[in-house]
Amino acid sequence: MEIIFLGTSSAVHSKERNHPSIALKAFGDVMLFDCGEGTQRQMLHTKVSPMKISKIFISHFHGDHILGLPGLLQSLGLQDRKEKLTIYGPRGLNKVKDAIYNFGYCKFDFPIDFIEIESQIIEETDEYIIKSQLVKHNVPSLAYSIEEKKKPRFLRDKAIELGVPVGPAFGKLHNGEEVEVNGKIIKPEQVLGEPRKGIKITYSGDTRPCEEMIDLAKDSTILIHESTFSLQDEENALEHGHSTASDAAYVAKHSNSKELILTHISTRYNGEFYKILLKEAREIFENTRMAYDLMEIEL
């Protein structure tokens, strides 16, 4: 898996920080979380190809999270895309769709599915599960998690001890199939170890700290959480439905996440003040770092 932070600012972008967007390269797919203004231009500075994006997950409909979407879709059409694109978001997504389709002289010759969701399992395959959760913002807002399904370890020596020949039978057992060896049925549970936890990435969107967010983020490998404000501006966080760096750390600690990454940083902070945000978070949750535009994380 690889996470690429395309934009890490909040409502107003700056020279250093673009509007919010995160690309995830995983399972042979490219998934995009939010699509602020300038997202497709940010991609030009990375190895993320817009043509490879198969799914876009919109957290909510504030402009800093969606105004890059019409331009991105038009660019994909101009590049003669043929593959289907699926866009998920909270209730109201179909109104956004209508606005995009009626904006200027738009024409899309590739299929686009706009799917409104709430708190639910969005997609589940043999490799991963993606969930959404309504959280606490001043408009309907979704957080998302994607969790790898990791197979139990295959106990090779145990399989050989049971007479399983080295070869295709190993793969069948590891994939959950029974095999027959000398008239005896060998079951997968006889040669598989304990269940293993796969990588889990959780993205908060915009939210106040809440139990819903903690539950979704439980046992995350990486929690990417908005931290728009410092403690000195806590009243602003409360008024506008955002989190402070300390709030994000609280969620990380109580969800038993392994690492916290702060993003959605207000442009009132820069330079040395970033250290203050980090200090506030690390006083609660030590394993914290701050995202910056074009930052890449390999897992």
Helix content: 10-25%
Largest sheet: 7 strands, mixed
Quote the distance from N terminus to C terminus: 5 Å
Number of strands: 16
CATH architecture of the largest domain: 4-Layer Sandwich
Description:
The protein has 299 residues and is of the alpha/beta class. The protein has two domains: 2-152 and 194-298, Ribonuclease Z/Hydroxyacylglutathione hydrolase-like (Metallo-beta-lactamase, Chain A), CATH 3.60.15.10; 156-190, no CATH class. Helices cover 25% and strands 27% of the residues. The protein has ten helices and 16 strands. It has helices spanning 39-43, 63-66, 69-78, 93-101, 156-161, 168-174, 211-216, 234-240, 245-254, 273-282, and strands at 2-7, 21-26, 29-33, 53-57, 85-89, 112-116, 120-124, 128-134, 142-150, 179-181, 184-186, 196-203, 222-226, 260-263, 288-290, 296-298. A seven-stranded mixed beta sheet has the order 6-5-4-3-2-1-16. A seven-stranded mixed beta sheet has the order 7-8-9-12-13-14-15. A two-stranded antiparallel sheet has the order 10-11. A hairpin with a 2-residue loop joins strand 2 (21-26) and strand 3. The longest helix is centred in the first third of the chain and has 10 residues, at 69-78. The protein is globular. The N and C termini lie close together (5 Å). The mean pLDDT is 94.
Element layout with pairings:
Layout lengths: L1 E6 L13 E6 L2 E5 L5 H5 L9 E5 L5 H4 L2 H10 L6 E5 L3 H9 L10 E5 L3 E5 L3 E7 L7 E9 L5 H6 L6 H7 L4 E3 L2 E3 L9 E8 L7 H6 L5 E5 L7 H7 L4 H10 L5 E4 L9 H10 L5 E3 L5 E3 L1
Parallel strand pairs: 3-4, 4-5, 5-6, 12-13, 13-14, 14-15
Antiparallel strand pairs: 1-2, 1-16, 2-3, 7-8, 8-9, 9-12, 10-11
